[in-house]
Write a structure and sequence with these properties.
With 128 residues, the protein is an alpha+beta fold. It has a single domain, classed as RutC-like (60s Ribosomal Protein L30, Chain: A), CATH 3.30.1330.40. 23% of the residues lie in helices and 30% in strands. It has a four-stranded mixed sheet. A two-stranded antiparallel sheet has the order 1-2. Belongs to the RutC family.
Length: 128
Amino acid sequence: MSKQIIHTQAAPAAVGPYSQAVAVNGGKTVYLSGQIGLEPHTGEMVSENFEAQVRQAFENMQAVIKEAGGTLDNIVKLTLFLTDLGKFAAANAIMAEIIPQPFPARSTVGVASLPKGAQFEVEAILVI
């Protein structure tokens, strides 16, 4: 798979760790369902702490990506869901630590609630 990062000055620049768009040639497309901060062995939320939930959600996502035969480099699109957009900067910082550059395309959505009282959810599209 080869990724081409799309960037134009005719649209606003990315305001975080993401690309305006990503084009992909070849490969298998994988659509990952949303992951929240549940501990895999207990099914319980890792913590009430927002940052801990974000990190666990990304760990859960990585586990599914690995099982699908991919890596974080195969992500072409992420969608983040936050129950408090005031915590956007914290989620952005954690994502920038975890997701390799060039960054995938991304959307961030503020939502009223998430399953099991989660404060954060992440879903992904990959091309492997």
